[in-house]
Every structure is written in C-alpha cells, then in structure tokens.
Amino acid sequence: MDSTIEIIMILLVLSDMALLGLSRLRACISIVSFQGMLMGLLVLIAHSSSMTPRLIIIAAVSFMIKGFVFPYLLRRGIREAGTQHESEPFVGYIMSIISGVVMLGISLWLGEKLPLLAALSGSSLVIPAALTTLFTGLFLIVARRNALNQCLGYIILENGIYTVGVVSVVEIPFLVELGIMLDVFVAVFVMGIAIYNINREFDHLDSDRLNNLKG
Amino acid sequence: MEIASIINIGLGLILAPLLQGVINKTKASFAGRTGPPLMQAYFDIIKQLKKSAVYSKTTSWIFKAGPVVSLAAVLLALAIVPMGGQAAPLAFPGDLLLLAYILGLMRFFTVIAALDTGSSFEGMGASREVLYSALAEPALLIGLGAIARETKTISLSQIMPRAHFFSPEIVLVVAALLIVFLCENARIPFDDPNTHLELTMIHEVMVLDHSGPDFAFILYSSSLKLWVLGLLIIGIIFPSPAGSFWLLYSMISVFGLLLLAVVVGIIESTMARLRLARIPQLIIAAGSLSAFAFILVMR
Lengths: 215, 299
Hints:
The complex is a heterodimer. Chain A is an all-alpha fold. Chain A is built from eight helices and no strands. Helix content of chain A is 78%, strand content 0%. Chain B has one domain (3-298). In chain B, helix 4 runs antiparallel to helix 5 (120-151) and helix 7 packs antiparallel against helix 9 (212-237). The model of chain B has no long low-confidence stretch (mean pLDDT 88).
C-alpha cells in the first residue's frame, strides 16, 4: 500500500512540474484532469484496509468532478476565449521549473518539521508532495497572466489541501469534504463566467490588464 | 583486467556504427521508405578514410587536433563504462565523474576546432552546443549521483549490477538520462542529424570543415558516443548480477542497445524538432527530474 501511495505522490509532483513547464493551455488542462483522477484513486488506496460506502462516494465524486467536469468547463472556457497559449508569464518557464524544484526542497524541509502528520500518513513523501502541490498552485496564481492558468492554480491548490486531508486524517467529516468540493466547483463555475467576461471585455484573458480598471 | 572486459570493448568498437544504421532503418520503415543499408555508417567511415584531408589556410594545429582528441576521449570513455555485469577495464571509485568530463573534453575540442576555422556558422553551432551541454551536464551528473547514492558505490562498474530498475527514483533517472542521451548525441527533439540548414543546426554545423580521415574520426567517435551513453542507460535498465556468465549478459546489453536505437528511431519519426528557444526548457526539465530523484534518494 505504501509503495502505491509513494508512486501516486511522485506522479503528483511530476504533474506539478509539468504544469510549471508547459505553455499550452490544453495540455495544462489535461494534466490537471490527470491529477484529479489521481486524487480520486488516492482516497481508495489510502483507506484500502477500511473501505466504507462513504469513502467510495467521496472517491467517485472527486474522480468525476476533478477528472472530468472541471476539465470540461475549462476546455469550454478556452474554446470560447479562443486562446491556446499563455502569452507572456511574469516568471519564465525555465525559472518556473527551477522554482518548482526549490519548492520541492522547501516542502521536504517543512515535512520534516511536521513529524506527527507524516506519522499519520504512513509515508514520508505525502506531506512534501502535498505541500509542493499547494505551493505550485499559489505559484501559478501569482506568476501567470492568463486567467485560465490562475484558475488551474486554484484547483491545484485545492488538490494539495485535499491530499493532506485524505491521507492524514482518518475520518474526514463527509459534509466538510463535500462542502470543500462544492466550494471549488462553484469557484470554477464563477471563474468560467469571469473568464468569459474578461474575454468579452478585453478580447483576451490577460488578467493583469484588470489593473487598468482602477480609477 | 580480464579478457571478458577487453572483448566487451571490442564489441563496442565493432558494433557502434551499427546503431546509426538501426536508427535510420527504423525511421525509413516509419516513412515507408527502404532507407540506407544497415551498414551505411561503416561505408561512410571507410569512404572518408580513403580520401585525403583538406585544411583551410586560416586553421591552426587545433583544427587538426580536434578529431583526434575527440576519438581518444571517447575511446577512454568506452573503457570506463561497464557492460554486461563485467567490470570495465578502467574502473575505479569515482569514475562516473571522469566519464562526464571525458565527454566534456571531447565536446570542448570539437568546439574549439569549430571556432578555429573562423566560420561564423560554425561559431553559431559551437555557441549552441556549449549552451545545451552546460545545461545537460547537471542533469547527467545529478542523475548519476542519485543512482550512486541509491547503490552506495561511486564506481560505474559497481553501480550498474546493483541498480534495481523498478524503483521510482531509478525510473526518473532513466527518463532524465534518455533526454540527456538524445541531447548529447544531437538526436531529434534537439537537433536533426539530417538537416543541413545552417540556422537550426547544432552538432552538424561544427564539423562542416572537416574532411577525409578527420571526418571519419568524427563519424566514428560520434557513433561510439552513442554507444557509450546508450550503455549507461541499458546498464541501468537491464542490470546484470556481477559474476554471472558475462557473454550472455553482454549479448543482452547489445540487444538492449539495438532496442534503444529502435526507440530513438521511433522518437525521431513521431516527434518534430523543438524550437531552439524551447530546447533549454526540456533539458532543464530533465535536470529537474534528476534533482527530484536525487531528493527522493537522499530522504
């Protein structure tokens, strides 16, 4: 079980790195979709010894929403906006990948400072991987101009929180979990509308230009 | 020094140009062509050896030394990399560093020989080659470092038999090494060996002025380099226990190298060349794979 979790964590970190290095929005969305499916599998594998219908529902819901619904909404977003590429990120792609490795290092260091969580999760890689995912999400929100990439950053951020929750907390209250899911779902929905409106007002998805609106 | 390791080197010396042939055959069959014969690289080398060299008046002894030093360096590298579980003749603790920098010496002489001609195109190619190899070197070294840490030895001949392919760290390192392999040998996502368009060439442009036996040396040393770096990957994927029957494992290694050549052919047929500006990004990605593996191993 532990080695399977380790492999999932490594895939998680690798998909973070890929998100940092890729400029094609469509590829980025596919990677986020892949990460969402990993999240669904993670619930099943982390609690494979004590499977309950509740867990299966959580796994199925997150698998469907993160793996299929979000990507569908986001793909529709870029189809309507007609953009395929992040134009000019604030931080270049090479610098992004290097910062990804630095963030991984920091996460490992932080993970060692949180021995209790690591002991609960059973694998010393879970907390660093989750933190890396969280940092990557924040980084994408800060470092990219494109509203869609920022939205992806938000989903990734939530994946990081979700990983910590699923693996380390034995019993997650069902309502809390579904509530978080609903929050993100609504957020993506609202962002979809925002993307559409930014695009209609400005003919592009460059959220940096929103600064021009200040009086 | 055992007879087996000498035979391994002999295998490398004889079979290395065959890899190019396998790559070209694979590409040809993907494109629906017959393609050049399998032995084409041998024919090219023999043809060039029969010709006499032409030297430009602007060149100095460096230009003549370039191909010779390259060939000598890659022969030394061949004596460092183990094959089929048999320790290499020049194995000593820390030889992985020597391997990386022997290849660096080879590149350095190719580059200064190219600069020595005073041609602006060759200068351009030299500049690119140096940039990409400066980026690829950390990927190679950190990756080898990760494996060395995993197997707790620092000699390639002891690392190879002990590496277990089916651990996540090793898979990451192999992926990084494969990217470095393609970059160092100027294969497709980085450089198209078939193109002769000056604007995009990297390796090919640096050797434009060499002719005759010098060019034969360059062709031969580049196929040996393909062989040596390929052995590095194959040795990790198909680890062979030390002390086992070496001939069998040497044959497995040769088979693995031919398989690697087919894989390279498939990559070249299905991928386009990357834009020059994107190349450093891919090499940095390989470096980050290595760094990730290293972090995982250090844990």
